Amino acid sequence: PKKMIISLKKEKPKLPETFEEDTWKKLKMSVHAVHREQPVEQSFEELYKSVEDLCIHRLGPNLYSRLQNDCEEHIKSEIDSLIGQPDDATIFLEVVEACWQKHCNQMSLIRSIFLYLDRTYVIQSSNVCSLWAMGLQSFRKHLTSAPEVQNKIVSGMLSLILQERMGDMVNRSLLRNLLRMLGQLQLYSSFEAAFLADTESFYRQEGSDKLQDLDIPNYLLFVERRIEEEHDRIGHYLDIQTKKPLISKLDTQLLEAHVQTIVDKGFEILMTQHRIKDLERLYNLLLRVNGLSNIRQAFSAYIKKTGVEIVMNDERGLEMVQDLLDFKARLDELLEQAFASNDELSHSMKDAFETLINARQNKPAELIAKFVDQQLRSGGKGVSEQESELILERVLILFRYLQGKDVFEAFFKKDLAKRLLLNKSASIDAEKAIISKLKQECGSSFTNKLEGMFKDMELSKDIMAAYFNSSVKKELNDKVGSELSVHVLTTGYWPAYPPAPLNLPREILDHQEAFEKFYLSKHQGRRLTWQNSLAHCSLKATFRPNSAGRKELLVSLYQATVLLLFNGSDELSLSEIAAAVGMDDKELRVTLQSLACAKIKILNKSPKGRDVEEGDRFTFNSKFESKQLRIKVNSIQLKETQEENDKTTESVFQDRQYQVDAAIVRVMKARKSLSHTLLISELFKILKFPVTPPDLKKRIESLIEREYLERDRDSPSVYKYLA
């Protein structure tokens, strides 16, 4: 019997020979319909299935190649159609935008039809790009192959941007879309290079023109507006990568190229007019281009120029300190509000103030001391305690800049003595507070004597309390009907006062003798010297019998001695008064002038006049009237004469000579032998006050004469110390 063999193998079905061609033909028709912007006849589901069938049967590479060729052919024709378009920038760019938008829409539609190809064959093949990227590559290829079109696109966009910079309205969305197109095509860099070159050229010319036409404040406003506009362009249509080079070009052409001109033309005017907002704008803009050094130089030069004018102005000598304080306050405000409290500018201001305040030797130190005296004296300007403290704090800042602090010390000490002894200090706490601040600034050696003056005042209170309870004082009370208060001063602490001859009334002499007897019994070996020039008195005067005619006169001891003469005489001549009081002639004339020629006339002078002359006669003014019961006649003790100022200055110079001599000897004693140049250099480091090489040379010569030093026999420029 025959065996039947049944085969279970199934033959693989074969594709029709025309399957690939037929399928592609159908797909090609749909692609052409998309390119022609016509309806696609087959359904997207049917087309998608056709692509899937081709890919499943490993026909993906051929399909991709055919699609690529078709798309490339279409894109080439689209790019070619842009050649010969109108030259008008806006019209041409709108055509390009429409072409690009159509390309994007068509590639998006084609990708959706060939999505299976994109997700299988393309992903599995390393050297094949996506359909969307393939479209971009093709568009880029044919666009770069048509330089006429590419250049026209770039020049058209640059033209629109120029129009916008000139103030015209342009289609920003058109620019944005085209720049994004260039970005996707990786052609943005070609636009950026041309754009930055145009920007540089445009702002170079505009910067030069505007700087000639505008003043500096308006030029800075113009620059600020241009920077804002360019930032706005970056936000609307330029790529963010363009921001840094664009702003750099702007800064370079509008600011960096003109930094010195901007500073030279505008800085001083803005400072003088105190235009904070404009200065803030200048500072912020120039800071962008490393212009701080230019600002610093101009700031320092302005401070020195203006400050030196204040310091050297003799007409406003008395107002100099207040002018400097106002100037400093204005600068502090500018530094904080316009210059953001910049440290470098702050240091420049300090250096400039140190230069300007020492441009005039000694006088600023003297006037600062007098200003402090006015603030601390009672009856000064009507300011509160807090305001006065703030003013003194500001004055101490000026004091820090002084090189000749010894001049300030001398005048401050003299004025402090008068305030304490004449009871003219507004607040002892304020006095001690400023001395404490001076101690912090300059050390205890600077304030030792000043603190000693306060100790003397405190001790004097204790001495007077003991004196009033002593038997000597009780015995004196039986003889005289007046009182005497004494301040016992330590010679080394207080300013030196020249002896002042005066024939004191017997009653005051009795007081002095009694006090001396008491004091010396307690402090043996000490010597008391009475300083008549500092004494002041309270006299009871009767101008008329009724109560309205009785007054209390606050006078100096000189004034009191003269007035007491009229208790025994109705009329006295200048020579008679001089013989009776035994005063210095100049001092006597000033005293009589204060009593007979001032606003308050306690005496009458004949003949009338402002000056006291030989032959003048004086009578008691019994018709004197005043609503006040206590009348201050003692103003001359508070006033400083030019002679007093000269003596104070001279004493400072004398002290400086001693300090220079001591410094030279100290250095030479340590070094034994030193050249002239090195010695001068060492002295400049040691000495705390301004001194010149010629002055130092004079002191060296003086020490050689006094045999503290000698010159080296072999080298005359070398000094040797003599033990």
What structural class do you assign from the helix and strand content?
A: mainly alpha
Q: Mind telling me the C-alpha Rg?
A: 50 Å
User: Which strand order do you get reading across the main beta sheet?
Assistant: 1-2-6
First and last CA, distance? 155 Å
**Percent of residues in helices:** 55-70%
Low-confidence blocks of residues: none
Mean pLDDT: 89
Largest beta-sheet characterization:
3 strands, mixed
Query: What is the count of DSSP helices, taking H or I runs of 4+ residues?
Result: 30
Number of beta strands: 9
* Coarse shape: elongated
Kindly summarize this structure in a few lines:
This protein is mainly alpha-helical and 723 residues long.
Describe this structure in words.
- With 723 residues, the protein is mainly α.
- 64% of the residues lie in helices and 5% in strands.
- The protein contains 30 helices and nine strands.
- It has helices spanning 19-35, 44-56, 60-80, 89-113, 115-119, 121-124, 131-144, 147-165, 172-184, 188-213, 216-236, 243-254, 259-272, 276-287, 292-312, 320-337, 343-357, 363-376, 385-401, 405-421, 428-442, 444-468, 471-477, 506-522, 557-564, 574-581, 585-596, 642-671, 676-686, 693-705; strands spanning 536-542, 550-556, 571-573, 603-606, 617-620, 630-632, 673-675, 709-711, 718-721.
- The strands form three sheets. The protein has a three-stranded mixed β-sheet with strand order 1-2-6. It has a three-stranded antiparallel β-sheet with strand order 3-5-4. It has a three-stranded antiparallel β-sheet with strand order 7-9-8.
- A hairpin with a 7-residue loop joins strand 1 (536-542) and strand 2.
- Helix 13 (259-272) packs parallel to helix 15 (292-312) and helix 21 runs antiparallel to helix 22 (444-468).
- The protein is elongated and about 175 Å long.
- The termini are far apart.
- The mean pLDDT is 89.
